[in-house]
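Practice problem 4.
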């Protein structure tokens, strides 16, 4: 199973240096997880950042409720003025859900472009709500349309068969009632799982 949150439209972040959800592709910016081994990747472009330091910290879990273990991920990107111009890349490696320092070398650009990938184990079912903490406030940055995060379940916690990728579809709703999970996709298909 693979879940993708992808911005169809630009999403304006709050003028705040507190952690906030990175995507509003669905109402909560959340992805529901069952226990298992996951791989993830993301590509995010944010415009209208502060010219003092258009940078931030990324937290893959954010305010989510899932319990994560054995987290590792790396990112690269830049803090520049125009996101379409080739520029020096910097990055880092993380062994927790949240980056301990800004994700790229600080610059005075007003755009932040980052990509990353990694893996984690979900030991207790819950949600991921990828988040960003802006380094500098006083602005209302915008997550550009096309920015995304993809989280793919590779192996369930029981050690059962490796799951296949279900392709790139937008999740319109993901509802769990009791032990039944119903996921509705943008192409009209519905998947029902017994948990």
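Answer key:
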């Amino acid at each position: 199973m693979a879940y993708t949150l992808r911005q169809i439209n630009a999403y304006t972040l709050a003028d705040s240096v507190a952690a906030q959800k990175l995507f509003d592709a669905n109402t909560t910016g959340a992805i529901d997880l069952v226990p298992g081994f996951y791989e993830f990747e993301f590509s995010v472009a944010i415009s209208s950042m502060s010219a003092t330091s258009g940078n931030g910290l990324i937290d893959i879990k954010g305010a989510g409720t899932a319990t994560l273990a054995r987290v590792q991920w790396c990112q690269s990107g830049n803090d520049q003025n125009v996101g379409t111009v080739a520029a020096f890349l910097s990055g880092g490696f993380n062994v927790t859900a949240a980056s301990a320092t800004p994700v790229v070398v600080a610059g005075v650009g007003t755009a932040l472009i980052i990509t990353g990938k990694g893996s984690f184990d979900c030991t207790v079912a819950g949600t991921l709500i990828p988040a960003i903490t802006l380094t500098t406030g006083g602005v209302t940055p915008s997550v550009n349309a096309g920015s995304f995060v993809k989280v793919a379940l590779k192996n369930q916690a029981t050690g059962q068969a490796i799951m296949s990728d279900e392709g790139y579809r937008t999740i319109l709703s993901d509802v769990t009632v009791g032990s039944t999970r119903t996921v509705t996709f943008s192409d009209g298909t519905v998947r029902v799982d017994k948990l």
